[in-house]
């Protein structure tokens, strides 16, 4: 029988171990390790299997790598795009001239597209990290601007109050 599960369950009981004092004293437990490829986990009573692997190499899949892995990804993508462009033009030429090579051209085009897809997927995590970094930097800049304005307002207010005090002291002394 399936267990009764709430749509919005309470957090696990061990969240109490992560107090400010425990974090400051470094006595809080380490966060759990990421779920490895092939492991199962439970969320809201439903069991899931981690079948997504981000570090799959084309060679491990038996696919030929058409770009130099040491090159910058942008350069590799340009190379693959140029190769795809050439491949499609030669494919169009072979439609009229040489129909025997069409299947070979389709396989070559497929291989180029697989390489391009793999290259894009390899760098999605880096793009996501960069996006989060950029968002955090913009938030920091906004907070800095707000704090600078607040400090300037306080400074202006203090200068005004100082001028008023000086003026009142002069009036009292005269």
Automatic annotation (TrEMBL):
Species classification: Eukaryota, Fungi, Fungi incertae sedis, Cryptomycota, Cryptomycota incertae sedis
Keywords per UniProt: Activator, Nucleus, Transcription, Transcription regulation
Assembly with partners or alone: Component of the Mediator complex.
Pfam families: Med7
Single Gene Ontology BP annotation: regulation of transcription by RNA polymerase II
One GO cellular component term noted in the UniProt record for this chain: core mediator complex
GO molecular function: transcription coregulator activity
Similarity comment: Belongs to the Mediator complex subunit 7 family.
Name of this protein: Mediator of RNA polymerase II transcription subunit 7
Species annotation: Rozella allomycis (strain CSF55)
Annotated function: Component of the Mediator complex, a coactivator involved in the regulated transcription of nearly all RNA polymerase II-dependent genes. Mediator functions as a bridge to convey information from gene-specific regulatory proteins to the basal RNA polymerase II transcription machinery.
Highest rank taxon of the organism: Eukaryota
Subcellular compartments: Nucleus
InterPro entries: Med7/Med21-like (IPR037212), Mediatior_Med7 (IPR009244), Mediatior_Med7_sf (IPR044888)
């Amino acid at each position: 029988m399936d267990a009764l599960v709430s749509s919005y369950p309470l957090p696990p009981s061990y969240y109490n171990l992560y107090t400010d004092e425990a974090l400051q004293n470094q006595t809080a437990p380490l966060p759990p390790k990421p779920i490895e490829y092939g492991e199962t986990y439970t969320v809201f009573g439903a069991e899931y299997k981690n079948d997504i692997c981000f570090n799959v190499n084309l060679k491990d899949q038996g696919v030929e790598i058409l770009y130099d892995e040491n090159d910058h990804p942008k350069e590799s993508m340009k190379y693959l795009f140029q190769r795809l462009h050439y491949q499609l033009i030669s494919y169009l030429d072979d439609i009229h001239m040489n129909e025997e090579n069409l299947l070979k051209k389709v396989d070559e085009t497929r291989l180029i597209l697989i390489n391009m897809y793999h290259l894009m997927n390899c760098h999605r995590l880096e793009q996501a990290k960069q996006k989060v970094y950029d968002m955090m930097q913009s938030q920091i800049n906004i907070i800095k601007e707000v704090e600078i304005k607040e400090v300037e307002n306080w400074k202006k207010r203090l200068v005004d109050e100082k001028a008023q005090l000086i003026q009142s002291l002069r009036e009292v002394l005269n």
